[in-house]
Amino acid sequence: MAAARHKNEDFVDAFVREMEIQRGSSPHTLRAYRRELERLAASLTNDPPLTPSAWAGVATDDLRRFLADRGSQVGRRSLGRTVSVVRSFFAFLRRTGRTDQNPASELRVPRFPRALPRYLSESELRELFEDAPLPDEAAARDRAMLELLYGSGLRAAETVGLDWRDVSLDDGRLHIRSGKGNRDRFVPIGHAAREALSGLAAVQTTTGADRGPTTPVFRNNRGGRLAVRSVGRIVNAAMRKHGLPPLNPHALRHSCATHLLDNGADLRSIQDLLGHASLTTTQKYTHVSLSHLRKTHRRFHPRG
Fold it and tell me: Which residues are known catalytic residues?
């Protein structure tokens, strides 16, 4: 049996290691892969982790029973991710000679309608940004963060990952280091975001805070780097303050892309700004823009 050649190896560890080295998967993605495979192992034995010979003996029906049970606990999207992980794992085992067959080859990812990205209208965003930031670090920090999420289309993790060395106010650009897929890129800073970042820098200087090159731009009240989950709380607090619907930070990124497209930007430029590896990912915003176009047509065309 092929698994005998790897009898002292943990197959899950080997798979996660390949995802990290060959595909450059993020730590978050790697943890998610591992959790799914640990759930699968727990469903197959009372004493996980599974041995190489046990993985080699897994049958398609075993996987279907696991997925049926998983499907009773999570939604279709989460189940779809589980199916993808299981298929990738067993394809890896077969490709690398760790098993002789692939019991996951017949599994299918459930189909579900693609949801359009949620975003704010330009009038709603004017409400969000109408307040002047208060002269303290927390208020200046929150305003600068909101401006970057919308103005430069940053992901929450990219925003909190910024150090002051990555911010060039004179040139009006940011250096995004190791973004999604471990890709670096440079993005422009709009005038509103530049003013907000300048205000934050001034407040930090006034308070005597350390602003060395590797000091985080966005800090918590203990002086450490702000956590990604804190970005969601800050965004929702701002939404509530202005009577706007609760949205996650990604909605500001979606708003950035949608408004660029509505105002004439081309998809390739938006792809570069957002750091999408594939233009297909960027093309989802054409559906949002088309929805906006339909509403405009119905409102203004004599026979709309």
Answer: 155, 180, 250, 253, 276, 285
